[in-house]
Amino acid sequence: MKVKLANLFFAASMPVLKVIIVTLVGSFIALNRINILNEDARHHFNKVVFYVFNPALIYANLAKTLTMKSLVTLWFMPLNIFITFIIGSILGCLVIYITKTPSHLRGLVLGCCSAGNLGNILLIIIPAVCKEKRSPFGDPDVCHKNGMAYASLSLALGAIYLWSYVYNIMRISSSKKNKEVELRGPITGPTEETSNISPKICDEAQLSSIDCSMPEENVYQDALPHGKSDKNIEDPASVKFKQQLKTIARKINLKRLLAPSTIGAIIGFIIGVVGPFRRILIGDDAPLHVLQDSAAFLGEGAIPTVSLIMGGNLIKGWKGSSAHTRIIVGIVVVRYIISPLFGVLIVKGAIHFGLIHSDPLYRFVLLLQFAVPPAMNISTISQLFGAGQNECSVIMLWAYALASVSLTLWSVVFMWLVS
Q1: Residue 62 near residue 123 (C-beta atoms within 8 A)
Q2: pTM metric for this prediction
Q3: Domain 5-176+255-418 fold
Q4: To pair with 173 at 20 to 30 A between CA atoms, which of 135, 246, 278, 360?
């Protein structure tokens, strides 16, 4: 029997309202007059969330709920997230073409259209939905247990896609405005532009694994034999080839992909799937269950902390910028109208062909992945490269302000579709 529409609306609106309230608290305490959650405080809080809270939350939920059987049933989620990035990228290219986006902002537009907030928003909304009496997802405890596993897996997969795809798209876009400097020939010292960018790269907490110690010009020197005369220098083609290999190796940097959240997901996979490890750590009778309980206890701090940080970061958008209104409208239309419609078609098609199991909560999460606002880490990437920071703040402000309405309406539709 279909759940009444009024009950669905109430169940969908309450979680979003909770997100709005906590976010507003973060915005309030970030105001200059209050100055509790200032920029430095948000920076340090973000470090704690990135290195401690999120990995602990992902590990605890995946290890507790994931088994070899459930792993087989969740295979469609990585593909679903990949599809969200592909569709978002195609629609982002259309936004760029229609709005005639400046070259240095094209990576930002592509990132906002393709990368949604696949973790933190779900980690807030799913538990709140499960607690509602009018929820169509059955027993609250079972719903919470499974929902946190789905949200944690979504967060881990989203982080991998974000830092492997969006990061490089925005890096390439921001580097275009630096090409003229590179074409001027050898330089004897750092330019004003490189001196502004380098500290951001070295100080960025979430990309602390980047090697900042090797100047770019030393790549050629490392490719040459040491202690030999110019007559013994290797063939120029060989030197250039080695230089390209080293440049590619430094840009790929697997440590960047293996972020703490990803490592937490890998450990959670291993503990959940491997029987001996699971018997040692998972369950009240497990010898080392205190380690699992401690990780879960730490992970509980992620959700409120992330909400407060998100509210504080949105304050930047009030200062205004040169972001074009048509670009903001284009991103909002892609993320809140076109992408969710594609999501309904894709998930319904997967259900029709028997690719997704019958759990309505799992189907709801898959649909919701198409309707979430842009990933907050896009702001971090824009700060890293020093391109489009003000524009990104305005985009995030409007995107998350409108998300309160969009998520509520789409959640009602999605609940109706899966119930």
Answers
A1: no
A2: 0.73
A3: Na+/H+ antiporter like fold (1.20.1530)
A4: 246
